[in-house]
Amino acid sequence: xxxxxxxxxxxxxxxxxxxxxxxxxxxxxxxxxxxxxxxxxxxxxxxxxxxxxxxxxxxxxxxxxxxxxxxxxxxxxxxxxxxxxxxxxxxxxxxxxxxxxxxxxxxxxxxxxxxxxxxxxxxxxxxxxxxxxxxxxxxxxxxxxxxxxxxxxxxxxxxxxxxxxxxxxxxxxxxxxxxxxxxxxxxxxxxxxxxxxxxxxxxxxxxxxxxxxxxxxxxxxxxxxxxxxxxxxxxxxxxxxxxxxxxxxxxxxxxxxxxxxxxxxxxxxxxxxxxxxxxxxxxxxxxxxxxxxxxxxxxxxxxxxxxxxxxxxxxxxxxxxxxxxxxxxxxxxxxxxxxxxxxxxxxxxxxxxxxxxxxxxxxx
Length: 364
Ligand SMILES: Nc1ncnc2c1ncn2[C@@H]1O[C@H](COP(=O)(O)OP(=O)(O)OP(=O)(O)O)[C@@H](O)[C@H]1O
Ligand SMILES: [Mg+2]
Known about the structure:
It is a single chain. Helix content is 65%, strand content 13%. It is α+β, with helices and mostly antiparallel strands. Strands 2-4-5-7-6 form a 5-stranded mixed β-sheet. Strands 1-3 form a two-stranded antiparallel sheet. Helix 2 packs antiparallel against helix 4 (170-201) and helix 4 (170-201) crosses helix 5 (214-224). The longest helix has 126 residues, at 23-148. It is rod-shaped. The structure holds adenosine-5'-triphosphate and magnesium ion. Residues 258, 261-262, 317, 321 line the site of magnesium ion. Adenosine-5'-triphosphate binds at residues 258, 262-263, 266, 291, 293-296, 304, 309-312, 317-323, 346.
């Protein structure tokens, strides 16, 4: 029994000795019941303590597990980002490879055709020269006949000869034949130049580093793409003085071609494409291709070097030109920079080391 209760009962009944018979046993039984109750309570308390402890432990474990999961998730996300970047790089490399293979085979084809055309051009050119001399001789003989024989034939023969002369329009023919020959030789000279440009442009030495005159490369490229630009733009050349540059000449020609064709495409009606060159210092040269075209929207500026980024309609642009050019310029240890203002125009600047950074090139 609770000691407080026991004390009160004892006091009311005048001490433990005054208790009626049987009450002592009753008190003892109540005391036992209380003791049992206390023991049960303590046991329940202990169990509750243990449960609470277990719950705290479990909670801590869960928290630890959650933290571990969060760390794993962050690591997985980082890994995923790395893999995406890697896949992108692989895609880029693959595309560049495809594109350069395509260009190399186009180059080979062009060089082959140029080579085949070269021979017939040679003999047609030489024959035209001889033909011009023969025509000259024939006309001299004709003039001699005309002056010497004008009185030595009968009137009737004269009339017949005059009829033939009138029929063939001899006076016109005399004037025109020389012009025809001159024009033909000019045409042939142009074909010769185109063939030479094609050969220069597509030299099948894509892997050969050489010291090259970049102005020559620019000029042959401009002749090759002349058709793309002549209806769109006036071409202004502001060439500075450039030293020879150690480079993969035909690959740089591809860069110039991509930039010039892009410039022409950016011009809607008619504009100007200006090509400037110069040196930054003793070791670096630059080539700038500027246009007065549409310009590039600021949100696109960061993406133009991405493979397959194009704003051109389906079928018109693959979006590989600039990514390929960027790769080629980097292979030379150079940079490709762009400045653009929408509605005003765009300028691409290729900066190249005079002596190629070949270590960089072979590392790529
Ligand atoms: N000079 C320029 N003026 C305006 N926009 C340009 C110019 N050069 C490039 N761009 C923009 O950059 C995009 C990507 O150019 P890129 O040369 O890589 O591909 P493309 O010209 O679209 O296709 P292609 O593979 O046939 O060259 C173009 O679609 C165009 O939006
Ligand atoms: Mg392009």
